[in-house]
Design goal:
Helix content: 10-25%
Strand order of the largest sheet: 1-2-4-3-5
Largest sheet: 5 strands, mixed
Structural class: alpha/beta
Number of domains: 1
Order of helices and strands: EHEHEEE
Radius of gyration: 14 Å
Shape: globular
Distance between the termini: 23 Å
Number of helices: 2
Length: about 110
């Protein structure tokens, strides 16, 4: 039986990560947040990414794993959710799979 250790999770409305002008400042702040507060999971709302390439472009700089991805279905819509597991998370090695949904707001169970 796998025991899930105590962990900390944050939920943030990031208000977009695809705009190049604001993305760098937001990612710098997120690196600081991860270093200082050491969250094990961060749930992001409104990332505004339409493709997996946009998700990976934004999140690869942080290290860690991206999971439970729901992409923004239409350009200009304010949607998209995902969960990020930082590399220093106590849950990092427990994450084995994830889903991707094109629907924007919700993660569907399969």
């Amino acid at each position: 039986m796998t025991v899930i250790p105590p962990y900390t999770q944050f939920s943030l409305n990031i208000r977009g990560l695809i705009d190049v002008k604001s993305r760098d400042a937001k990612l710098k702040w997120l690196k600081w947040l991860i270093r200082e507060y050491k969250p094990d999971l961060i749930h992001f709302q409104e990332h505004h990414c339409h493709t997996m390439k946009e998700v990976m472009t934004a999140f690869r700089r942080l290290g860690g794993k991206v999971m439970g991805i729901s992409l923004t279905p239409v350009k200009g819509s304010f949607a998209g959710v995902l969960t990020f597991v930082p590399a220093n998370s106590v849950l990092y090695n427990m994450v084995e799979e994830h889903t991707v949904s094109p629907d924007g707001r919700y993660i569907r169970s399969i």
